């Protein structure tokens, strides 16, 4: 079986590739991509990060992002670890996820 290499230039496109597993809406993908691209904290969804993302995505109240955080957590795109949120390991680019697709069972 030959592996397939797919190049993606943006975090949004990278997340879109795996979206069949998570079933995120376009807005959820945008929020998650912005959280990843602008994360300066060990907590992906810290108040500082949410304020920055709200500004970038032109969301008037950064508390609105709490709704997105809950949905991303419910869909397992982010995981709560003690008091912090982190990205699902499957979505971390450095983990080099490899998917093998077989035509038939062996």
At a glance:
The chain is mainly α. The chain contains 5 helices and 2 strands, in the order αααααββ.
Order of adjacent strands in the largest pleated sheet: 1-2
Q: Ranges with pLDDT <50 over ≥5 residues?
A: none
Rg, rounded, reads: 15 Å
Structural class: mainly alpha
Oligomer: single chain
Number of helices: 5
Overall shape: it is globular
What does the largest sheet look like?
2 strands, antiparallel
Ends apart, CA distance between termini: 12 Å
Number of domains in the coordinates? 1
Total beta-strand segments: 2
Order of helices and strands, N to C?
HHHHHEE
Proportion of helical residues: 40-55%
Please explain how this structure is put together.
With 106 residues, the chain is mainly alpha-helical. It has a single domain (11-95), classed as Arc Repressor Mutant, subunit A (Orthogonal Bundle), CATH 1.10.10. It contains 5 helices and 2 strands. The radius of gyration is 15 Å and the shape is globular.
Task: Based on the model shown, name its key terms.
106 residues, mainly alpha, Arc Repressor Mutant, subunit A, two-stranded antiparallel ribbon, 2 strands, 8% strand, globular
């Amino acid at each position: 079986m030959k592996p397939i290499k797919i190049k993606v230039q943006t975090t949004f496109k990278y997340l879109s590739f795996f979206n069949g597993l998570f079933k995120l809406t376009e807005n959820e993908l945008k929020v998650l991509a912005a959280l990843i691209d602008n994360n300066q904290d060990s907590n992906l969804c810290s108040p500082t990060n949410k304020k920055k993302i709200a500004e970038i995505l032109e969301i008037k109240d950064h508390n609105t992002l709490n709704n997105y955080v809950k949905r991303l957590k419910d869909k397992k795109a982010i995981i709560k670890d003690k008091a912090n949120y982190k990205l699902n390991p499957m979505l971390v680019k450095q983990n080099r996820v490899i998917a093998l697709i077989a035509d038939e069972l062996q």
